[in-house]
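User: Here's a chain of 115 residues. Predict its fold as tokens.
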Amino acid sequence: MIENPDASITGDQLLSILAALANPQRLRIIAALQSNGRNYVSQLAREIGISRPLLHLHLQRLEEAGLVISQLELSQDGKALNYFEVAAFALQVTPASIAAGAKTLTASVTKPDLR
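Assistant: Prediction complete.
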């Protein structure tokens, strides 16, 4: 993800990030991971108070945007646990960065998917 706020990102990347952040549940997920550190899906779902399938969909969108990172690990009893943590990112949105990003939007991107 973007670690240097001055680094330019493409319009498609900007659109993906903003669409991922445009959901209150996803903001809560990032806040929980930032406050409590990395966590696995079941525990995080209990903490946030949403179902695991819904949480997984939100985490997938956040991961696609580069805002969270996942790592599959085996527990002591052999269960596969998918741990998530916040990716290091800094995003500075200015009129200039939006204008620069708009120039690089691909033709296939016409409307963001705001799931």
